[in-house]
Design brief:
Largest sheet: 6 strands, antiparallel
Radius of gyration: 31 Å
Number of strands: 6
Strand content: 15-25%
Number of domains: 2
Number of helices: 11
Order of helices and strands: HHHHHEEEEEEHHHHHH
């Protein structure tokens, strides 16, 4: 290793600024794209879940906002790795890495700014995993509880069922955008004596009362099926009629924060492991504490894996390296998750949660050490070349079919 690898001179400081400036844009772009994709998919599921009442759609934004720290913790390592991979691969394609190596700037010195960025992101990750996620998880559950138990707001969507209480059910085939003017309305009412009334109307209009506690339904062109006694019914047709329905508010949250180990901050988990916590066992809290720290502390080692895989992309292409990286990160995530579940059940000590972390760190160090000896060559090069051959074989298999179709 040359002196330029160990001594920080003016030129390496310029290289640091250049490397960080090149990685900032891809990091932000990857993070925004990943967060947008994850949140959009979850928002669509929330819309589908809360589609039973127009009153509940207003909660979707609050629910999505509370999911942001959760998905930020998932997206940050992936975005950091992809940004480093793209930046180093681009530098390698432009022969910038070759020029730096020829001038005496080794890979160890080149990767230092990325390691420093990883340390900064580790602090962010600890804050996200340790403090933002517990509060946002509880906030999500609080808003979801309010949404599920939200009272009726006096509006009705088409082809949905509304139950303001356990004695009234309504639905309409048609409704305007405001949910006030309805077409082909169906109402089922249960009286205090347990008998039912079924009312249908060709059209109707909803009018909330001035005090906001009730709503009046003005019915036009309908009929009412009234159960006068068990099994005996009376049918009445009418041109105009009215029915009153209550407007009820949402139920209060049933419990305070801390009923789940994922709602506890790092400090609360540490205190619970030492002194105990009502309702949560010490193995569960110890497993949660170790798993959060293992995930957060993995970020500084990602550059040691991203740089070798990116340099190998000059020969084998970028896709095989990204495949290997994706499998490695998924294996690490699920390994920590599996060890956490076993530790939480008391089958293994909580410290075993760090075993997948140790394997992941060893793999990163091994890859970078092999790349230092021969840039562009890593211990995983045979695997990358095998994946590249499979991709080339698949392309060759598909190409004749495309040409024939053309």
């Amino acid at each position: 290793m040359s002196q330029a690898d160990a001594v920080v001179t003016g030129r390496p400081r310029l290289i640091d600024r250049y490397a960080l400036r090149q990685s900032a844009g891809p990091l932000i772009a990857c993070l925004v794209v990943l967060l947008a994709a994850l949140l959009l998919e979850r928002a669509l599921r929330l819309f589908d879940l809360l589609s039973g009442s127009s009153a509940r759609f207003g909660y979707v934004f609050e629910l999505t906002a509370n999911l942001l720290p959760h998905y930020l913790g998932l997206a940050l390592p992936a975005a950091f790795f992809v940004s480093l991979f793209v930046v180093v691969a681009r530098m390698s394609d432009g022969s910038e890495i070759d020029a730096w190596l020829a001038s005496g700037v080794g890979l160890t010195r080149l990767v230092l700014p990325f390691l420093a960025l990883g340390v900064v992101l580790t602090v962010v990750s600890v804050a996200v995993f340790g403090y933002m996620q517990p509060y946002s998880r509880y906030g999500y559950r609080a808003v979801m509880h309010a949404a599920v138990n939200a009272g009726w707001n006096g509006r009705l969507q088409a082809q949905t069922f509304i139950e303001p209480n356990d004695k009234l059910l309504m639905t309409a085939d048609e409704a305007d955008l405001a949910g006030r003017k309805l077409g082909r309305l169906f109402i089922r009412q249960t009286r205090d004596d347990g008998l039912e009334d079924i009312t249908t109307a060709a059209s109707a209009e909803l009018r909330p009362s001035a005090d906001g506690k009730r709503v009046e339904l003005s019915l036009i062109g309908g009929q009412r099926l009234r159960e006068t006694s068990p099994g005996v019914f009376d049918v009445t047709r009418f041109d105009r009629g009215t029915i009153d329905a209550p407007l009820e508010g949402a139920a209060a949250l049933l419990r305070a924060r801390g009923g789940d180990e994922r709602e506890l901050t790092l400090g609360e988990l540490w205190d619970g492991v030492r002194n105990g916590h009502p309702g949560i066992t010490k193995p569960i809290m110890a497993a949660e504490l170790n798993a959060r720290l293992a995930r957060a502390l993995s970020l500084p080692f990602l550059p040691l894996l991203a740089v070798p895989l990116a340099l190998s992309a000059k020969r084998s292409g970028r896709a095989p390296g990204l495949v290997v990286a994706g499998v490695t990160l998924l294996a690490f995530h699920h390994g920590v998750q599996f060890a956490q579940s076993l530790a939480g059940a008391g089958r293994i000590p909580a410290v075993v949660v760090w075993l997948p972390y140790a394997v992941f760190v060893a793999l990163c160090l091994w890859s970078f050490h092999g790349c230092r000896a021969r840039p562009g060559q890593t211990p995983m090069t045979p695997l990358i070349e095998a994946i590249s051959d499979v991709i080339a074989w698949a392309k060759a298999l598909v190409k004749p079919k495309r040409e024939a179709a053309a």
